[in-house]
Design goal:
The complex is a heterodimer of chains A (about 190) and B (about 575). Chain A has 2 domains: about 80 residues, ACT domain (Alpha-Beta Plaits, 2-Layer Sandwich); about 70 residues, Alpha-Beta Plaits (2-Layer Sandwich). In chain A, strands 5, 6, 7, 8 and 9 form a 5-stranded antiparallel β-sheet that branches. In chain A, strands 2-3-1-4 form a 4-stranded antiparallel β-sheet, covered by helices on one side. Chain A is built from 5 helices and 9 strands, in the order βαββαββαββαββα. By secondary structure, chain A is an alpha+beta fold. Chain B folds into 3 domains: about 190 residues, Thiamin diphosphate (ThDP)-binding fold, Pyr/PP domains (Rossmann fold); about 160 residues, Rossmann fold, CATH 3.40.50; about 180 residues, Thiamin diphosphate (ThDP)-binding fold, Pyr/PP domains (Rossmann fold, 3-Layer(aba) Sandwich). Helix content of chain B is about 35%, strand content about 15%. The longest helix of chain B is centred in the N-terminal third of the chain and has 15 residues. The chains are: A alpha+beta (about 190), B alpha/beta (about 575). At the A-B interface, helix 1, helix 2 and strand 4 of A face loops of B.
């Protein structure tokens, strides 16, 4: 039960200078590498939401979230795990395509993954793709042989399934199961 | 009316009823000191100029620990601010409420490596509950109010406010606000309304308390640990009542000294690395361990996996993040120790009897005896002599090392705030500053600084502060000519290779006392010591009693780090 795995933490914070370093420091101070980090404002411009992914054991992630809650700049923290959260990230990838043939092949692969083509030049093509790490990894594996020139990802963002939000600590299991079944394959 | 940032700062300190400030001026904080001139003249506040900013920070900390109120210290930018870092960390690890005000270079110079510039909010981020860099004079009052609320609320701790110099000179509108209205106005009001931050201690959950009551009723061998939370919450009466009611042997941690009377018939003494036989054996044998305000540091739960291996462990703490951090517990209650214990006592009216377990525990020693010898003093001799000769309510400040452990083992502390010691951070040189802070808060009380020759040398520059302000302190110096605790480890673990621990060198502490305008005497027998203490008590200045201790005297008992709690290396 207490094995290392990847955890997603959603943290609501004041949208102010220095807040990100206060939050990140809690991880670095304990020797954790932040696997993924995404920050942006919420519908309230005074509040930002940070999504952090970290590999650790369950008791450690609970300790981290309790310590995060102690920071004055932190409004709320929630541990989101795969079974009841949707996680997505945006990937931009510039791939080498020296011939029209390879370009077509790349476009085809992109279509299968529902990636959009956002830039084309004579010798390169840039794709944008939204998904979780399985999907982004799969497309990388397929396109690697063409030559990936550059790649950037936004970092994972996540929301809980169902009507519940970061401010609620309780949830009914049936509720998010329902959401999972209906929306599983959607974006 | 438009007033300067410096005046707003001083007015906000008045709102908090600050009567003493410890500090050291410098270029960037000059506007504040210029304003302080008026406040001192009007007798509204007293500023104590220390010899070093570290001393000022320790003094504010000592003041806070002794009074339970927020201590305040000032320093300038750059080196002034970084000199306080050790003091801030000391306060952080021991949950002591202080507010440090540093001024930084002007806003326009920040980030340009200006003279005496340092990003002190960045430096102190891991060692403060919160810190602030003030961006405009308009937000200054709000920030000071918030800082004090944060420092003293919940689990207390240090807060730092860094004010760029230009802001102390700029003017804005200031409206005085009595303290009781702070929590409903401004940024602090917003914080209070935010659900996740209860500034008041969390209310203990009824069901959690009921469960503990049940566990106590089921237990045959209950035991209590009194930690620093009891001292911070001033819950010593409740602690005593609980111990008596459930008839449980009660151990103290270093930070818990004063939370449970050392001479109580249920007191087993200190627990952990230098814990007594009785405490360490009891924790190993008990079937229910209730830790009140204790975070099971590595000096208490030396080996977390086997700590209290026969017991169900219950943790009572104000800080949720301490629960299950170091030791896995069977049950916990989050709340202020005082509230939780009150509730518990209410729900547990019956007097219990665990005489069998009590007899077992007290068949072991609660205190170590040392063999007396000619020409030197034993640690217990020194401490019992101090305890017998000085007033019962004397405040004791210590540095860190052997003398600190001896003080906690052999001086029986009576009330919270009586012992000022750096338990968590282990800061050598803490004692003198802390003693000054306590003496400034309680001029009528006898303040004793128990120290070693190593720790004393670190910050003895503050003797000038003691002399100048007439803050009379009795220094009891355990002089063994070595860094005793380190030597003890070298003796036991490093094959007696005493690398860089022998202090066979200046100063002569009696002459040092003289140089600072204080009195002093070197003593090597119990009679001389008693005489010296009497002289010191009668004397109108501070007094250094240089006690000759054997270089190889050790703190006993001792359990090695990481070992099971009853695997004593020394008995």
């Amino acid at each position: 039960m207490n094995e290392n795995k990847r955890w997603t933490l959603a943290v609501l914070v004041d949208n102010e200078a220095g807040v990100l370093s206060r939050v990140a420091r809690l991880f670095s101070g304990k020797g954790y590498n932040i696997e993924s980090l995404a920050v942006g404002t919420t519908d309230d411009p005074q509040v930002s939401r940070i999504t952090i992914e970290v590999c650790t054991a369950e008791d450690q992630v609970r300790l981290l979230s309790n310590q995060l809650r102690k920071l004055i700049c932190v409004h709320s923290v929630k541990i989101l795990d795969d079974s009841h959260a949707i996680r997505r990230e945006l990937l931009l990838m510039k791939v080498l395509c020296s011939t029209a043939e390879t370009r077509n092949e790349i476009i085809q692969i992109g279509n299968i993954f529902r990636a959009s083509i956002i830039d084309v030049s004579k010798s390169s093509i840039t794709l944008a793709l939204i998904g979780d790490e399985q999907k982004t990894e799969a497309i990388q594996n397929l396109l690697r042989e063409f030559g990936i020139l550059e790649l950037v990802r936004t970092g994972m963002v996540a929301l809980e399934r169902g009507q519940y939000t970061i401010d609620e600590q309780t949830k009914e299991k049936g509720e998010f199961d329902y959401g999972k079944n209906v929306l599983r394959e959607g974006l | 009316m438009l007033v300067t940032g410096a005046k707003i700062l001083m007015e906000c300190l008045m709102e908090q009823h600050v009567d003493t400030i410890f500090g050291y001026p410098g270029g960037t904080i000059l506007n504040v000191y210029d304003e302080l001139y008026n406040y001192e003249k009007e007798g509204k506040v007293r500023h104590i100029l220390t010899a070093h900013e570290q001393g000022a920070c320790h003094a504010a900390d000592g003041y806070a620990r002794a009074t339970g109120r927020v201590g305040v210290c000032f320093s300038t930018s750059g080196p002034g601010a970084t000199n306080m870092v050790t003091g801030i960390a000391t306060a952080y690890l021991d949950s002591s409420p202080i507010v440090c005000i540093t001024c930084n270079v002007a806003s326009s110079l920040i980030g340009k490596d200006s003279f005496q510039e340092v990003d002190i909010t960045g430096v102190t981020m891991p060692i403060t509950k919160c810190n602030f860099l003030v961006h405009s004079v308009e937000e200054l009052a709000d920030i000071v109010r918030e800082a004090f609320a944060i420092a003293r609320s919940g689990r207390p701790g240090p807060v730092l406010i860094d004010i760029p110099k230009n802001i102390t000179a700029e003017k804005c509108e200031y409206t005085p606000l009595p303290r009781r209205e702070h929590s409903s106005t401004g940024k602090l009001g917003d914080l209070m309304r935010r659900a996740s931050h209860d500034f008041k201690a969390p209310e203990p959950d009824e069901k959690d308390v009921d469960k503990l009551v049940e566990m106590i009723r089921e237990s045959k061998k209950p035991m209590l640990i009194c930690g620093g939370g009891v001292v911070r919450a001033r819950a010593h009466e409740e602690m005593k009542a609980l111990a008596r009611r459930i008839d449980a042997p009660t151990a103290i941690t270093v930070m818990g000294a004063g939370g449970f009377h050392g001479l109580d018939p249920l007191a087993t003494g200190m627990i952990g690395m230098h814990g007594s036989q009785a405490s360490n054996r009891a924790v190993d044998a008990c079937d229910l361990l209730i830790a009140v305000g204790c975070r099971f540091s590595d000096r208490v739960a030396l080996k977390p996996e086997t700590f209290a291996r026969n017991a169900r462990i219950v943790q009572i703490d104000i800080d949720r993040s301490e629960i299950n951090k170091n030791v896995k517990t069977a049950h916990h209650i989050v709340g202020d120790c005082k509230h939780v214990l009150e509730k518990l006592l209410e729900k547990l009216p019956e007097q219990m009897d665990h005489s069998e377990f009590r007899k077992y525990v007290f068949s072991f020693k609660t205190e170590t005896e040392y063999d007396p010898a000619e020409g030197r003093l034993t640690p217990s001799q020194v401490l019992s002599c101090v305890a017998e000769t000085c007033p019962k309510d004397s405040i004791i400040a210590t540095d860190v090392g052997q003398h600190q452990m001896w003080a906690i083992q052999h001086f029986h502390f009576d009330y919270p705030g009586q012992l000022l010691t750096s338990g968590g951070f282990g800061t050598m040189g803490f004692g003198l500053g802390a003693a000054l802070g306590a003496k400034a808060a309680f001029p009528e009380k006898c303040v004793i600084h128990i120290t070693g020759d190593g720790g004393f040398r670190m910050n003895c520059n503050e003797l000038s502060t003691e002399q100048y302000y007439g803050l009379k302190i009795i220094h009891v110096l355990f002089d063994n000519g070595t860094l005793g605790m380190v030597r003890q480890w070298q003796n036991l673990i490093y094959n007696k290779r005493f690398t860089e621990t022998t202090l066979d060198r200046a100063p002569d502490f009696v002459k040092l006392a003289d140089a600072y305008g204080l009195k002093g005497r070197r003593v090597s027998s119990a009679e001389e010591l008693q005489e010296a203490i009497r002289e010191a008590l009668a004397c109108d200045t501070g007094y250094i009693i240089d006690c000759v201790i054997d270089i190889d005297e050790m703190v006993r008992p001792m359990v090695g780090g990481g070992s099971h709690i009853t695997d004593f290396m020394l008995y």
